[in-house]
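idk why but the lab printer keeps eating my pages so im just putting this in chat instead. protein + adenosine-5'-triphosphate:
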Amino acid sequence: MNLDEIEKDLLKRVADISGVPEGAYNFRINGKSVGKKSTKNIDVKSKAEESGIDVFIEPGTKKDVVHIPVILSESGHKETVYNDFYIGDNSEVTIVAGCGIYNCGVKNSIHDGIHAFHVGKNCKVKYIEKHYGTGPSAGKILNPTTELHLDESSYVKLELEQIAGVDSTSRLTKADLKNDAKIEIEEKLLTHGRQIAKSNIEVTLEGENSTADIVSRSVARDTSKQNFKLHITGKTTCRGHSECDAIIMDDAKVIATPSLDAESLNAELIHEAAIGKIAGEQLTKLMTLGLTPDQAESKIINGFLK
Amino acid sequence: MDKSFHGSGYKTERDALELKNISFLIINGERNRHVLDNISFKFKPGELIVLTGPNGSGKSTLAEIIVGIKSPKSGQILLGGEDITSKNITERAKLGISYSFQQPICFKGVTVRDLLEIARPENQAFKELEIVGLEKDEYLDREVNKTLSGGELKRIEIATVLARNSKVMIFDEPEAGIDIWSFDNLIKVFKKLRQKNKDKIIIIISHQKPIMDIADRVIILKKGSL
Ligand SMILES: Nc1ncnc2c1ncn2[C@@H]1O[C@H](COP(=O)(O)OP(=O)(O)OP(=O)(O)O)[C@@H](O)[C@H]1O
Ligand SMILES: [Mg+2]
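predcted complex ->
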């Protein structure tokens, strides 16, 4: 794989790797797969009909990792990519996705990643997706769709992070859960300048004793705008909790719309939402410990998004 | 310069903290209330002073004025002869004033380790946690939030001020929410702090007799006056 410095930096930021990782992988750069590897238990195949990959994970696979980073470094590149994961029963895997965009041209660079996860029984899956944009031009656009189907007693943890540089993002995350399945979604978002971010999370608790825990933390600076919609449906005995916590600064705007839909007497659903500026008393405390107001502010924000 | 403290174990009076004619007013509709009415006082290095008085008498307000969280309506604050009235919280912290809040502050994602490292970036043995009776391994990486009990939060708050080890240390009701056993320990901590530091000013706001017993002077704030 031949990567230039910009591409290497993007890769480090979105997938935390320098060079070829352990385990299975697929590297997609400017619309082409530039490196692909399957392992004994994980089969990575390019799709025939459309762009994207199918990843088949053998039942009983333990502690394996799949890296599927996407890099866009040519200005004006637009793509829609379909990635499907078939995760066999009793598997434990970590999937590291992530998209980095460098734009120095006048055109928009757009990556629409559409991911579907078919998670077998008793699986433990961790999915990490980081977004990062850099380069002098605006027009770095990412619109991920993630669909998850959790079979009985499976557990999925999603870590979604977008800390800098993406001008516009519209994220849709949908999950449905069978009996005893559990999902945890942790979303972290920071927008600045004139960025816009939308995130729509819909979880349906179909199976008995299924649980969902969604925590979204965000910071909106400058004149950026964020819009969150979190929706949990409980169809039977189940537990769902969502929390949307935003710090606004400058002239930013945040809208959070939680909704809960209990279709059973035994559905326990809770939503918490809080939007506000940095707590003055937190700033004060850190200043009494010797930090300047700016240092105190960044300490609070870094902690909040940690 | 007054050198009267030379030879008695004190440093020079240049290190004193002096309040001159401090007033603080609360505007409540039509009526103004003087919470602090023309208060003057000199805290001398090497002294442990207990500030007491009824609820609502203005003890915390006075502390917040010294730290820079609130501004007095009139009057001056001098540290070592320098007028610090117009300095902000950070500047005063750097000059050596620290404050253990009456109500400990909670954060999101900020750990006990973070606070102690901010309080004292160098020399990180975190022994202040042990001093306030908290197991280092258990607490260092806990987030400073409501999952900690009231007493634990209070002790962490005290530890951050001990970590700063600054010239002026103010503890606002350090005993609040702390169990009897730890309270005995706390008194020992303050006693030791007083004995080891002949150049520091330790101010403890308290309603507790055992704390008053270890004081060099006890001052009572009532109806806005000392
Ligand atoms: N922002 C405010 N608005 C209105 N009243 C205030 C405000 N801040 C303080 N006060 C009032 O000022 C007075 C002094 O408050 P302060 O907290 O200094 O009292 P205290 O002596 O520390 O009391 P305690 O022993 O209960 O801690 C109280 O009557 C309080 O109600
Ligand atoms: Mg008080």
